Amino acid sequence: MSEIKFDYKSVLPLLPTEPGIYKYFDESDEIIYVGKAKSLKNRISSYFYNYDRNDRKTRRLVQMIRKLEYTVVHSEWDALLLENTLIKELQPKYNILLRDDKTYPYVCVTHERFPRVITTRRIEDKEKGKMYGPYVNAKAMHALLDMFTQLYTIRTCKYNLSEENVEAGKFKVCLEYHIGNCKGPCEGLQAEAEYQKEIDQVHHILKGNISPAKVYFKARMQESAAKMAFEDAHQFKLKLDFLENYQSKATVVNPSINDADVFSIQSDDTAAYVNYLKVVNGTIIRTQTLEVKKKLEETDEEILSIVIFDLRVKYESEAKEIISNINPDIDFKAQITIPQIGDKKKLLEMSLRNVMFYRHEKAERDAIAASGATNKKDRVLIKLKQDLRLVDLPRHIECFDNSNIQGTNPVSAMVCFINGQPSTRDYRHYIPKTVVGPDDFATMREVVFRRYSRLVEEKAELPNLIIIDGGKGQLSAACDALKQVGLYGKIPIIGIAKRLEEIYFPEDNLPIYIDKKSESLKLIQRCRDEAHRFGITHHRNRRSNNFLISSLESAPGIGKTTATKVLKHFKTISNIKSASEEELNTLLGKDKARRIREFLENES
Description:
CATH superfamily of the largest domain: UvrC, RNAse H endonuclease domain
Shape: flat
CATH topology of the largest domain: Nucleotidyltransferase, domain 5
Number of domains: 5
Structural class: alpha+beta
């Protein structure tokens, strides 16, 4: 370690060109910045000889420097390790500090005889066992634990199952044993070697490697079948199917990619946004997106190198390939790939989309916070935007529904929600003009076309989200109409099917399911139910009017045209009965007025 009284004009020529780390101190002898360098002399000199080109915060840092210390190391990798350790320990005010994930849950496989699989949020618990995580998505973690319950018989009790305690008969089997979730190691009913085989499979799966577990269950199935133990073979077959089904739900990239870490970064003047995908055996097993606040005018390369190091250590990644949109120019003991075509390019694009969604979401939150709008309506819209992966906040929603009974009096309804609330003045009814018979798809196609062709013609405001009451068929018909208008792909559109409340997206074969308790799903359901109510009300009115018209047509000498004219003027039969003779004569003439009066008198 070299310590030099600070005088940069005399100090800089004496600096070594080897890799290392450097520390800046202020006048109170407090460390204010720690950095790494391929060449200490070149890197430190850049702060002073490029002084005028530095930003305001960097100029402030330079003005505060009163002393520097440096440490020479063997390689740039060693410099990165040392820098990372010192930043976490000293937390200098001008260094980037990544958010600590200690509040995220971990899965711990304990160091016990007959190990347990538990969850913890305390990284200090690593002395208790092997830690896996952190899991940013707690639902994914619990899905994994549920799978272990289905596949293995791992104990959940906290007993100290030492050989002495088990032999002394200190414990008795519990309900978990009787329902088949445990094989009773507390009473010596399960051999430690057999139990450990299952724990080994748990370790493999937690590392993202499902293949050994599949091989294990397949071998046990074949062994049981060979021994004519077909019931046991069937149980192992069910577990193998369960494991394969779980794997099929994961995001499979391509088995040829094998193990890789994917990092993408985008930045603005104040912060950088980084997404990380951990790929093991062609499957994404971890994902995290984070924001890094800039302390100085750090480049994307500098920020990415810090994030790569931190997350690879945190997630215990030893992947030999790092896929990224920029080259951090650091030796991470792995090959850096910036793909231009192929599956790796698609994987990188997926990571960049995650960054984009994260930035849009944060921008919306910041805008709402800046405006002071923190009410429930805004929270629901933000949640809906997240669940549907929308680019914009869905402040303007329009929902369509068709109504008819056995093909009679078909009508369609469009309701409008602004900021999560009904805007009744924007509601619209539609009577199909081109559809003959009960064709729900053709009706939806017509009314959606009529609605948005008019909005385009009038240059009116378009919605942020369109909801179609129906499944894939109705949604496809609505999409055809948007294509005719030239709005397909410009307005997000979804369909909601009533039976299981599935949400369908255009061109997606499989629906998504939003949590039934989610406020965002309740808003979608409310839009759907309001469109249904509005349509049914109009449908009943039309049926009622048609009944009255048919009744008046029964009068001698009165046709449908005259009956419609009368009903349109007087609205109800009671109004016709109470109308004056002069009013009826003026509307219909003396002869037809007399016929209607006589008919109504006879009917009553």
